[in-house]
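Why show two proteins at once? Because comparison is the fastest way to build intuition. When a single record is shown, students tend to memorize it. When two are placed side by side, the eye starts asking what differs. So, the first record is below.
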Amino acid sequence: MHIDIIETLPSLAKLEDNWNAVYDADDEAQIYLSWKWLGGWLSCIPGPWFILAAKERDAADLPYVGFFPLRLQTTIEKSDVFGDIRMAGNFGADYTGIVCRLEAENKAIPAFARTIRQMNWARLHLDNVRISERRWRLLTACFPKASFHSTKVDKIIKSDGIDNSLCPYATLPKDWNDYLDALSTNTRQKIRRLLKQVEASSEYRITVATSETFDRDLKTLLGFWDKKWRARKADRIDSLIRTNGTMLTRSFQSGLVYLPTFWHGDRPVAALATLVEPRKRTFSFYMTGRDETFEGPPAGMVLHAYSIRHAIEHGFVEYDFLRGNEPYKYSFGCKERKIHSIVLETRSGRNLGGRIDVRCIPDLLQQATELHRKGQSADAEIGYRRILEVEPKHADALHRLGQLLAAKGDFAAAKRLFRILTTVRPDAAKAWQCLGQVCESLGQYEEALRQHLEFMRLQPDLPDGFVAVAKCMAKLGRMAEINAALLAAIEPASAPSVRKWRDWRPTPDRQSVGEHSVSA
């Protein structure tokens, strides 16, 4: 089995037909693995992502038979840099997993695992994976206990005992009344009464978001959700609202969101967002919010019943309540499925191969730079060094590590880095300036003079170069040349015989023993 790595949106776009063909043939595939949802999500997440794509052999004309979407994260901690591979949908998707043709899974899934084992990571987060036991064993068998430590992730919320590894869902019949008949007598009667109360009254109404009203309805939903959860999720609430808002907007633009709002007159009292998957004919309830001060009909039950009826009328076959075994979900005639969440860690606790994944460089550079700005120089230094281990001529890492080393007095090491930087970016004036400065700090004034002259050549209109050159020449005792330059600078600019200081160039190897004072 041959594995390609897809890591750009244009490359993913070219796979639409191939992806959809595999997705349609896979009974385990679900909306968060659909080409439409995943493409929208990957276009807005930070950090690098990649998709492992499997085919029978390395031939351009062969279609792929399986896809495994993943993402990379890097953290600086415990005096080292650790790579994490996560499921691509994490933080936006309730479910993650693999898309694969049934007849290819025995070869494709182990091939995915072997490819991952060749990468540079310390932790592999297989989180919220909705997958059959058969496929789960194929995947995890390739990470033996001798080399990897496995930890099950506890999905039970301590505050209320809700188990987020259990996912209730209702199978939908073709007829609304048939669905109601399968519920308890109490629930059936309650749903009929509530829908009649809402739809027969001029006091209440339900609207469904359109392109004209979506922004308003989403703002209503997120506002209600914020009020309910801010106290519990205070440290993460703003990030969650941004992520949910971005994901739902992208999904709506792709035709994947059903968002009804329940109104009491002109007052919105509840909203419910559901992800719609026409290929698999599923509704997946994503989030809801309501006005806690509203004392009318139970808005959550109204909107769920309204959405389920709509799904049945349009030929959908499943209403998925996603993660969490809240008791109310089971009143809608649900069964449940269980999802997997484990973390696999290398036995050494370090990255496989002892290095970082090159795709993490931009993210790691950003982290190291931020730590550098905050004065956490030890962690910043390890970040820069890990980048240079895999890309020795990375200009930004060379520059920033050189600055860090110079600041702590290691001028010889800083000089080596800035010297390399001038070969990588010979037209970058700052590189020559930094090299000149560390040469000065080492007392190497003749060499520093040459670097500052190059800075002057690249930035002739900045006085910094002239000042640096003058300082070096003063240290070398070449005062006459400095005085000549100063005299030229204060002469009238109209004098044809006078050169401006920025056009002045001393000869680096010229020796002078003049005793003239700069201020003379």
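Second record. Ask yourself what differs from the first in the token line.
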Amino acid sequence: MLDDSLLADLTADLPSAVRLQRLVRTLRESFRCGAVCLLQLQQDVLAPVAVEGLVREALGRRFEVARHPRLAAILTSRRSTLFPPDSSLPDPYDGLVEQQPGEPLHVHDCMGISLHVEGEPWGVLTLDALVAGTFDEASRTALERYALLVEAAVRVSRLEQEVRALRMAGHGGIAHVEPGEGGEILGHSAELQRLLHELDVVAEADLPVLLMGETGVGKELFARRLHQRSPRWEQPLVQVNCAALPETLAESELFGHVKGAFSGATADRAGRFEAANGGTLFLDEVGELPLPIQAKLLRALQNGEVQRLGEDTPRRVDVRIIAATNRQLADGVRDGLFRADLYHRLSVYPVAIPPLRERGSDVLVLAGHFLEINRTRLGVRSLRLAPRAEAALLGYHWPGNVRELEHVISRAAIKALGHGARRDDIVTLEPEWLDLPHGKTSKDEPLKADSRAPDIRELATHGVEPLRRQVEDAQRRAIRQALTACDGSWANAARRLAVDPSNLHKLARRLGIK
């Protein structure tokens, strides 16, 4: 019966993620165990791609093979591996199997098998049970048989991905599937997946891209992905933090200088443009550049030439520009703080990065990632969230986005140890240790009336956003939800929102969605 179910999923027209998730669910039911996890090998790290029976943040965990002897043993053997209930090797899923709300449960039985695709190690499949003796030699044999079907499912998913890539290449899209290394963008929300697809399409075009988003959304990771999915992926990606450039040194940093150009210039030095020649130049926080430097940057972008300080001859450079900002540059243009011609040159293709509060349960996936980092850093056997802590994370507004979430998890882990939690036990983080500000745990909670209206500075001090920002956030959410419901059709979305299509396009541009 299990064979028939798996074979049916292999031949069904399903998205890869759905196929793999159904596969692990079927295996869990067949082996009557607590949890099944399918993990893909990424260099020396195993990353879950489908889980069943584990807490939600498990998808964000990353397991270094060298730090997890059970996973290492499974990975190095072509046969299935069965660990006895009294094995002294630590189990990576202790405390992550969730069958009774609020109670961290210990794993007692564990077995797994390595998976190979086209002769190369692809990852591992693990099964865990809470009752000793669940698995025996017959289970080991059965797992080896079903592993062949799992490998087939992985091959089907890989082939489908390659076919999609070839189709896109035929239409001027992405020609390569795995373009390089770099930071990982975690999450499974429809909002994030739509954004990643958009970035993959625009990556192939050699257009300047302007990434717009609040502080802490991870604009650097999205810029890195753009570079890695572009034809320039083998060339350098050079990052410039424009906010950290003093005006007196900005020109030298960007364009270079020759010996004697100014006091302290003791040798010739190439600038960031030359360093990025042939590759990508990432101008982070571009809205912070002083106006005089903006004029020189515009000249470099228009002519494809840079001139070192103190040198008369310009040098040709070939760079793709990716810029990022947490400001509304259009407002800066209106207020005379940013050049209009440079703004239009940088924003040939503007991309809005959604804030964390608009990404649904992605907050738990990211929390799982930071939990695993802190578990390793602090030497804790297992680190997890209490159900009420999960609810608190999902309800919080996250003005500091992913960066704030990282700090919240790190603080909570340290507080748990400070309150007497033992490193050799399963440590469950309670909501009070998250230290989330009161009155902001729910993004839908109405503001309480006050005897006087606070000004914007007071609102910022108390962690409440100005009304204009809240209205804009609500408009962005409504437009994105309508686009999702209408499969990306702007005309249908306009009808759904009962607005004129031209007005919707104008509003979307002002909000940074288009």
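One difference worth noting in the second protein: The chain has 19 helices and 17 strands.
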